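Quick one, T. Sequence first:
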Amino acid sequence: MADFADPDALPPLGFISIDLDIHRPPGDPYNEKTWPFPLIREMAEGSKVSQVVSSDQYDSAFIDRFVDAGLRLAARGCVGIITSCGFLAMAQADNLVSGTTALSLGPVAAR
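Structure tokens:
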């Protein structure tokens, strides 16, 4: 059995961010000090706030940037992938296997 007394021995969690530079204090999912295990971050290149915070449907190129970031995280060994952007819930209609907010996990928890 693996020894998980060392946090670095745990498998990493992946985080996909948009192209935005804001303060991310401990407690924010993007801050590696929030987690008791390794966190690997990838940016969905070219994803701007103006694209995310919009009433328009996301185009396939926008979604592809997140998929590509997720694939990079998986290739780096991440066992789970998260984001903290609730606006991405609009992508849930695309039947992506993801949980972008705690509210989006309601149907899973109800099973």
